[in-house]
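Q: Structure tokens for this one, please.
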Amino acid sequence: MSADDPEKKGRALQLILDAWDKALAEGAEAEVIASVAIYAALADMVDRYGQDAVAEFCATLPDRTRRGEFTLGANEP
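A: Here is the predicted structure, written as tokens:
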């Protein structure tokens, strides 16, 4: 499976959402979970791809967000 495999991405997203729900159930605040999740993702990406590549990726986020790419359920039929 490639990194772009929709099945692989869907499974990974479900695992993350399950962990998110567990953290909420244990009393963590959503804003704290979100901040820590973003930090962890960016730190891993910097380790893998370098600071410049990650900064370029982050520069694409405003437009992608406005297009609804990160709205859960927005791309479902």
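A few notes: Residues 29-70 form one domain. Helices lie at 6-25, 30-49, 51-59, 61-66.
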